[in-house]
Amino acid sequence: MLLSNIDELPDRCAAGTRLMGLDVGDRTVGMAIADGALMLASPVGTIRRTGTFRTDASALLAAFDRHRVGGLVLGLPVNMDGSEGPRCQSVRQFARNLLGYRALPMALWDERWSTVAVERAMIDADLSRRKRKQKVDTAAAAYILQGALDYLGTRTARARLAGQGDADDAADEDAPWR
After folding, report:
1. Which residue of 15, 19, 90, 101 has the fewest CB atoms within a 10 Å radius of its CB?
2. What is the pLDDT of residues 103-116, one digit of tens each?
3. Could you tell me if 139 and 118 are in contact, meaning their C-beta atoms sit under 8 angstroms apart?
4. Global confidence as pTM
5. Which runs of E-coded beta strand occur in 67-153?
6. Does residue 96 sit within a domain?
7. Residues 6 or more apart in contact with residue 61 via CB below 8 angstroms
8. How far, CA to CA in Å, does 145 sit from each of 50, 55, 106, 122, 166?
């Protein structure tokens, strides 16, 4: 199910499973996995898109099983002005298609600047252009997932401090989930 509020995602995942972040591109899908405490995202690889969704889904499902994935965070490439263009439509369709293969809870996360931030960090780390090209998609997936984990952790901490017990506040229009 595609959730409209990322706050629901951890509660919708089966016990003992983890969240995976996906950076969906035309040629590749970068993947990252969260630790069990939902605090740290780590890159785990990239699959090369084949042109047939069935083959791509098969590779993703194998990764989901290998990493005990119970929920997904997909990067949503929102335009700088906040509008959604054709790339957002493509990611939303990818999510709907994937749900036809496995009914995992999914949330979309605003990925503006993710690839730029990752590229800059890789340049600062003095990685060659070739190494950056090999690692950028999985690193972007980790960046996207880490943003979502940080948001979820902050919301939970705020709710506990306020004595609310859960973070069921009204949705903020500028929230990075869609």
Report:
1. 15
2. 999 999 998 877 77
3. yes
4. 0.83
5. 69-76, 106-110
6. yes
7. 101, 102
8. 24, 24, 12, 18, 21
